Amino acid sequence: MIKKKFKMKPNTGIARLSAMLVIVSSRFSSKIELEYQGHKVNLKNSAQSLMELMDLKLYPGCQFLITVHGVDAYEALHTINVHIREAQAVKNSKKLVLLENVKLSL
């Protein structure tokens, strides 16, 4: 069993993060759980997991814990870590692109 804490960046949307976590978790045989404020969600239950994650009401800046048990635990946690970083980077880079396209007139 391995665990890792994650922190939601201010610009990360919960819907995108939830969908990504459920999709990525379904690729692995390990049991993968997200824990937040004493509530645990099994990320391998597809639509039910998605609804349970949305009910947790994660907010930007909050911290949550992902626990993985199984034969491919290290690979699963590494993949989740990479996808969370990419999701947060994509969101931030879109804002930068939008800001670059804004023209100021004086």
Q: What keywords describe this structure?
A:
single chain; 106 residues; alpha+beta; four-stranded antiparallel beta sheet; 3 helices; 46% helix; 22% strand; disordered C terminus
- Compressed to H and E, one letter per element, the order equals EHEEHEH
**Numbering strands along the chain, what is their spatial order in the largest sheet?**
1-4-2-3
Shape: globular
Major sheet characteristics: 4 strands, antiparallel
Radius of gyration: 16 Å
Secondary-structure class: alpha+beta
Helix content range? 40-55%
Mean pLDDT: 84
**What are the segments in which pLDDT stays under 50 over at least 5 consecutive residues?**
94-106
> In what range is the share of β-strand residues?
15-25%
Number of helical elements: 3
Query: How many strands appear in the DSSP assignment?
Result: 4
Tell me the span between the first and last alpha carbons.
59 Å
Structure, explained:
This protein is an alpha+beta fold. It has helices spanning 14-25, 47-55, 73-100, and strands at 2-7, 31-36, 39-42, 63-69. Strands 1-4-2-3 form a four-stranded antiparallel beta sheet, covered by helices on one side. The protein is globular and about 35 Å long. The model is unreliable at 94-106 (pLDDT under 50).
